[in-house]
């Protein structure tokens, strides 16, 4: 199918290669979907939320209660990703994988809490292996629902105060990298706060980071929502759904998932390079060249949502442009 897509691009009314990466996106999506006319109009955005015990180490500028409050904000339609989902006409699904406090039933929110947040990774494993597998399965089920709904493009997002700490720890372990090179401000730490956060991550790595097995890394250093994201990406590959990867945290989940199943990489498109310093290293490990660089670091899948129209434009150009012959346009020199 990729060869057919390339052949079509070669006869459209434009100089060869003049649409740049949009041409390559269309060819890749055609091959992924096994369709002569790729279609990513049906978009589902799934936000996984969970709390982190490492917040006890004072590594965030925001209190832990914000995670549950933001889940309610998603349900009420007031978050950035809520606005972007409406703008795109995309489905928005929110999954509570483990906030500290249980919540009442909220519209559009699935309660799949594994526990009341993870343990403090500076002192103990984040979760048991059983809990890690349960988190992965939450994501796999989300991908299966997307497939059943006929979704053409999957966007994963996250919400969890403290999750840049866990994600940086996971990235440091998988990349065998000094956390000082990867640690950033998250929700807005001062330089002193970033130094403290780095030391907390270093303590966690000293405790848990010797075993590089991806499941061990996710269980000992990850988060319920991070691990669910990894499961969702694996599930999307299984169901042949292209994925638009958001920023740092989702990219870390993608890195872990690709270590578990390298073939997953063929299903991933990368939306943007975030303002988190560790993101470039993770993108490099995934051989990823993101579409945008807007200094975003909000999370929630927001950067990926911003990039969705680029993929849709690539498909429309591929599908709807005239050929030289059909338009009666000369193209031979």
UniProtKB/TrEMBL annotation:
Pfam families, sorted: DBI_PRT
Segments crossing the lipid bilayer: none
EC number(s) reported in the record: 2.4.2.21
Residues annotated as catalytic: 300
InterPro entries (alphabetical): Nict_dMeBzImd_PRibTrfase, Nict_dMeBzImd_PRibTrfase_bact, Nict_dMeBzImd_PRibTrfase_N, Nict_dMeBzImd_PRibTrfase_sf
Gene Ontology biological-process entries: cobalamin biosynthetic process
UniProt keyword rRNA-binding present: no
Keywords associated with the record: Cobalamin biosynthesis, Glycosyltransferase, Transferase
Function: Catalyzes the synthesis of alpha-ribazole-5'-phosphate from nicotinate mononucleotide (NAMN) and 5,6-dimethylbenzimidazole (DMB).
Designated name of the protein: Nicotinate-nucleotide--dimethylbenzimidazole phosphoribosyltransferase
Provenance organism: Isoalcanivorax pacificus W11-5
Phylogenetic lineage: Bacteria, Pseudomonadati, Pseudomonadota, Gammaproteobacteria, Oceanospirillales
């Amino acid at each position: 199918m990729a060869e057919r897509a390339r052949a079509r691009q070669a006869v459209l009314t434009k100089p060869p290669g003049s649409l740049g990466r949009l041409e390559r996106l269309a060819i890749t999506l055609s091959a992924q979907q096994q369709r002569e006319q790729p279609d990513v109009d049906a978009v589902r955005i799934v936000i996984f939320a969970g709390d982190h015990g490492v917040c006890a180490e004072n590594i965030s500028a925001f209190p832990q209660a914000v995670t549950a409050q933001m889940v309610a904000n998603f349900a009420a339609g007031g978050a950035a990703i809520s606005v972007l989902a409406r703008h795109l006409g995309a489905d928005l699904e929110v999954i509570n994988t483990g906030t500290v406090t249980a919540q009442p039933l909220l519209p559009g929110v699935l309660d799949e809490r594994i526990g009341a947040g993870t343990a403090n990774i500076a002192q103990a494993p984040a979760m048991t292996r059983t809990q890690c597998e349960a988190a992965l399965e939450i994501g796999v089920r989300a991908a299966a629902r997307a497939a059943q709904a006929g979704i053409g493009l999957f966007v994963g997002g996250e919400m969890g105060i403290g999750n840049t700490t866990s994600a940086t720890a996971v990235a440091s372990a998988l990349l065998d990298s000094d956390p000082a090179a990867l640690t950033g401000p998250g929700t807005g730490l001062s330089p002193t706060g970033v130094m403290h956060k780095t030391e907390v991550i270093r303590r966690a790595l000293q405790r848990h980071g010797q075993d590089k097995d991806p499941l061990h890394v996710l269980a000992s250093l990850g988060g319920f929502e991070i691990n669910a994201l990894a499961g969702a990406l694996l599930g999307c590959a299984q169901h042949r759904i292209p994925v638009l990867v958001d920023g740092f945290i989702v990219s870390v989940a993608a890195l872990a998932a690709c270590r578990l199943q390298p073939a997953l990489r063929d299903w991933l498109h990368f939306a943007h390079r975030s303002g988190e310093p560790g993101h470039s290293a993770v993108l490099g490990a995934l051989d990823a060249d993101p579409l945008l660089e807007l200094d975003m670091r909000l999370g929630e899948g927001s950067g990926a949502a911003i990039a969705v129209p680029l993929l849709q434009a690539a498909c429309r150009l591929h599908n709807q442009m005239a050929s030289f012959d059909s338009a009666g346009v000369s193209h031979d020199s």
